[in-house]
Amino acid sequence: MDPRYALLADHLLLIERELRVLGWWADTAPSSEALASVEPFCVDTLAFEQWLQWVFLARMKAIIEQGGALPAVSGIRPMAEMAFQGRLAQAGPLLTVLGGFDQLISGVAS
Predict the structure, then answer these.
(1) Phi-psi label, residue 42: left if phi above 0, alpha if psi -120 to 50, beta otherwise
(2) Cβ neighbours for 36, distance < 8 A, ≥ 6 positions apart
């Protein structure tokens, strides 16, 4: 079992917490059509915070729970910086947590 699983699971909880604090957590899932987008980050059908909640968190939780192979790299923070352009100050704590996730996936100590 990858020793990063526990740390990554903690980071997923931190991401969820930040989305909730920002008021960007939704109780209702997007349509199945929106979630089935083939575009990276579902940019054509979802806001980035929706993608984080309904695609990224769900997939990463499943990988960890099933003991699956982790991605070799992650660039979630740079994508978030682009997506939250104009809201960077508001999204600051979320960006910090996403950057920590990227570092854990890449095996870079923070």
Answers:
(1) left
(2) none
Distance separating alpha carbons of residues 81 and 22, to the nearest angstrom: 15
Task: Encode the chain (110 residues) as per-residue pLDDT tens digits.
Answer: 788 999 999 999 999 999 999 999 999 999 999 999 999 999 999 999 999 999 999 999 999 999 999 999 999 999 999 999 999 999 999 999 999 999 999 986 54
Crossing angle for the helix pair 92-106 and 5-21, nearest 10 degrees? 170
User: Domains in the chain, ordered, with CATH?
Assistant: 5-24+40-106 (1.20.1440.40)
**C-alpha distances in Å from residue 55, one per residue of 36, 50, 62, 63:** 10, 8, 11, 12
